[in-house]
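Recap for those who missed Tuesday's class. We walked through two folding examples back to back. For each one, the amino acid string is listed first and its predicted structure tokens come directly after. Nothing is annotated here on purpose, so try labeling regions yourself before you check the end of the notes.
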Amino acid sequence: HKFRVGVSQIATPSMIIGLDYELITDEGFLNNPYRSYRYLVNPLDPTAGFQFAQEVYPDTRTSDAAALRMRYALPGRRALGAQYRYFTDDWGIDAHTFELSYTQIWREHWTFDVKYRYYEQTAADFYSDLFAFESQDEKDWRARDKELSEFSNQTLSLYLTYERPLRYFFFEKTGVTLQWDHIWFDYDNFRDLSAVSDVVGEEPTYDFEANVYKLIFTLWY
């Protein structure tokens, strides 16, 4: 089930603010059948190594999210944007998202956008990178999905868009956007098992960076 409501208000001739709320309830098989958690072969001797077993999740999840957003027009066909979003669920995850944006319209057809996004979350109550022993029953939940761990990420995005009217069949406008994203991920309690470590549970934490390029064609009708 999903419930969403939002309101927008013109605060000044140059500024619009908005508030959104979303409630989501999921029920059923919620974990990925191909993901596993790991546990110690001998809890009293970490050097004995570890084994894997299929993750065990609850069969329901309810989450709430609220977002406050603002858009402010500047002279010279420019605009600033800001947004804060708070997320929480009954699995124990609390997340905060901060976003800033700048938009510049150039001449008649060109738009340039810059966005920065920061995200952080706590781990789910039943997440661990390494458990002491195997799950005992279906209510003894276990997860090692890194998206349920404690982590943060940052994204810097650049967009260059060209749009112009199009009078062809029933189309009204066409556009093309070139987008570049640079993404940083830092996981606080998810460890990189590809690294060599003499002691189980002392592997370095996982992190990575990525560049993503997109070319988007759009038609309006």
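Example two. Treat it independently of the first, because the proteins are unrelated.
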Amino acid sequence: MAGRYYNTDYLSDITVTCEGQVFMAHRIILSAHSKCFAKMLNGNWKESSEGNVEIKDFDPGVVDAMLRFIYSFEYDNTQGTPPMILDAHMYQIADKYDIAALKTESKKKFELSIANGWATDDFPVAANLVYVSTPSEDRGLRDLVVEIARKNIDQLVSKDGFCELTRETPDFSADLISFLCGKDFEHGKSYPSASN
């Protein structure tokens, strides 16, 4: 129902801007779905007094998808970004703005997209994005990436992008070694070894 109000000036009382793109929004809708927006838009903050939230650390396509989700509980890939990369960005923006439902949905979509696309050149890019954009204690996407890599290690080691990922992303490499050895040492979980 709220979807019809997305990016319209009807009853809009706030704008969200990103790289010069302006999205019309509604304080009550953003606040209802995001604890971060609720604080920003209803307290003594610049965003509340100026009626604008400026987002600088995501591209407009990700911001658009986040806002669409807030209004309709779904997001589409309107920019042609590879799905697993978009889903990783959506998880990242959901975490930053404390949008629990979006974090859950983007994790589900990410799991499907890497299950279907692990053999593409996008997988190492998405895996690196996951590791640089999430704290080590947030295992949501990290465990999915490592499990897919473990299951498909024989094919992945022959790919330059994957080898580069292991060299340039030490946290991923450490997690992968733990999974390959059959243990998640940090969390005390056991996984079947690669030989099983």
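Answers for example two:
Residues 92 and 196 are 33 Å apart (CA to CA).
Strands lie at 14-18, 21-25, 52-54, 183-184, 189-190.
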